[in-house]
Design brief:
The structure holds two protein chains of two kinds. Chain A is mostly helical. Chain A is built from 17 helices and no strands. Chain B is α+β, with helices and mostly antiparallel strands. The chains are: A mainly alpha, B alpha+beta.
Chain lengths: 385, 117
């Protein structure tokens, strides 16, 4: 009987590993088995390559990985019922995430509940179970590390997406951490430990869950990234404007102590605080019925892209704050100013050109600008006396 | 995929572990390839155990504590010999008895109408 060289044995061992055998025990069994069969075959067939491929196709026509899967299935038979339950839970959880993302995108009610519930099912139920099952299927350190890394990153991604969509703190950090771990550690470990043939044979349920999670994430971010730069630059501008306003206010305070003009100062303060009210009104205008879609000053830009209609003009008479009233107040205020009057038109056309068909955040900026103008005008008036 | 050829896999599915245990009881320690060859010879090539069934079954038996392994180096590869544990010996007897009884019962059932044969 022929005997295999060490190199040939190592070649076969490498091939077995490359094809997804992760249990050392099984690897030893298969290696010895293939070698025995091969040594017999080599008596009648002198080419190592053709003999090996013949034996390989005889021993496992569907690839080595199938033998490992058969083995782990037998070994974890007692968990089968639980596995089925968990698979169903996994699908439900991912589906809830997906549905929640779509609802979020459309600003329909119930998105938050669906997202949090779906995420909780995945994070507390499905993922830990998958981790414990997958750890039973291998005794190789690299595979164990891979499974733990995969668990951590998928948990972080799901938690991060939910935090992000719910506007909870540190969402970005969690999400980036999860994606980072996945890309930098999990994928290389996965390819290294499983081998290319086995990648084609990932369980259908696992891939379905993965796919749904990925689609949810894409959905969630297509919502967020849209016009983000535009909105965030508007937010930056507004920050600058607010700082400017504060600075001017301080100068105005000093001047008021030196040159008293109570009527002017009172009118000025009234108009500024009226505009503050208008700004506050815009922040709650996005969808007044659903609290979660209300704008908050600190996360204003997030929702602003959802509506870009002319709320101010449309709500002329429907609310205690209106653009028309602002116009009147500005005109009245101009009476107190001898010079440097505030730039305001007397007709509705002025209001329309100023505010109509502007995104809310632009209107917000313009209102801050008006506040600055008012304070500036007061400073100039007081200074000129 | 299970056992082949001659007999359908459904027919032989429940008997593989019994066959393995019985062989180990008779021959002491055996390695995987040896088991497939032995079965092939003993059955007159009517039963060929597929590797895809043998190793999962062996690992399951080991997990249940019915067989144990010892290793030996052959060149630079490891050969694993399987042998019965004490508990495996008891279990083998039960399983073989059960299978014989089953065969007897089958004979009775299938011979109800002798004209059939």
């Amino acid at each position: 009987m022929s005997s295999l060289t060490d190199l040939q044995v190592e070649l076969i061992r490498g091939d077995i590993r490359q094809n997804g055998i992760e249990m050392t025990d099984l690897e030893d069994d298969l290696l010895d088995h293939i070698c025995c069969a091969l040594e017999e075959e080599l008596d009648v067939n002198s080419s190592f390559e053709s003999a090996y491929s013949k034996i390989k196709s005889l021993v496992c026509p569907n690839g080595y990985r199938e033998i490992q899967e058969e083995t782990t299935q037998l070994l974890t038979l007692k968990f089968n019922k639980m596995r089925k339950t968990m698979n169903i839970l996994g699908i439900i959880g991912s589906a809830l995430l997906l549905v929640g993302s779509i609802f979020k995108l459309q600003h329909w009610p119930g998105a938050g509940v669906s997202l949090v519930l779906g995420g909780a099912i995945l994070v507390l139920g499905y993922l830990p179970f998958m981790l414990s099952m997958s750890l039973k299927q291998t005794d190789k350190t690299i595979s164990k590390i891979r499974n733990v890394v995969g668990y951590l990153s998928s948990t972080a991604i799901v938690v991060g997406v939910i935090f992000k969509l719910q506007h909870w703190p540190e969402a970005r950090l969690i999400l980036l951490g999860g994606i980072g771990i996945f890309l930098v550690f999990f994928i290389p470990l996965f390819i290294k430990s499983v081998g290319k043939e086995a990648i084609m044979k990932i369980q259908p349920v696992t891939s379905a869950v993965l796919l749904m999670a990925i689609v949810s994430i894409l959905f969630a971010f297509s919502n967020q990234s849209h016009s983000y730069n535009y909105v965030s630059s508007l937010a930056d501008i507004n920050d600058d404007l607010e700082q400017n306003l504060e600075f001017q206010n301080r100068s105005a305070e000093k001047l008021r102590a030196q040159h008293t003009n109570e009527a002017l100062s009172k009118s000025s303060e009234d108009v500024v605080s009226y505009v503050d009210g208008l700004k506050q009104y815009i922040l709650t205008q996005v969808n007044p019925e659903e609290k979660s879609t209300q704008l908050h000053p600190e996360d204003g830009p997030r929702y602003i892209e959802a509506i870009n209609n002319d709320v101010l003009v449309e709500n002329f008479n429907a609310h205690e704050f209106s653009g028309e009233e602002l116009q009147k107040m500005l005109l009245a205020h101009n009476e107190f100013l001898s010079d440097n009057k505030i730039n305001v038109g007397k007709t509705k056309a002025w209001l329309a050109t100023k505010f109509s068909h502007q995104p809310l955040f632009v209107i917000f900026n313009k209102l801050t600008q008006i506040q600055i103008e008012i304070v500036n005008a007061e400073i100039n008036e007081l200074g000129s006396n | 995929m299970y056992l082949k050829p001659m007999y359908s896999k459904e027919l032989l599915k429940g008997t593989l572990t019994t066959i393995i245990l019985r062989l180990l009881a008779t021959h002491g320690k055996m390695y995987g390839y040896e088991i497939t060859q032995k079965v092939k010879i003993l059955s007159g090539e009517k039963i060929l155990i597929k590797e895809g069934s043998l190793y999962p079954a062996l690992h399951k038996l080991k997990d249940e504590g019915l067989v144990k392994t010892e290793t030996e180096m052959v060149g630079n590869r490891m050969r694993k010999y399987y042998s019965l544990t004490e508990q495996g010996g008891v279990s083998t007897k039960e399983k073989v008895d059960e299978l014989f009884q089953f065969i007897d019962t089958l004979k009775v059932i299938l011979n109800v109408n002798p004209k059939l044969t």
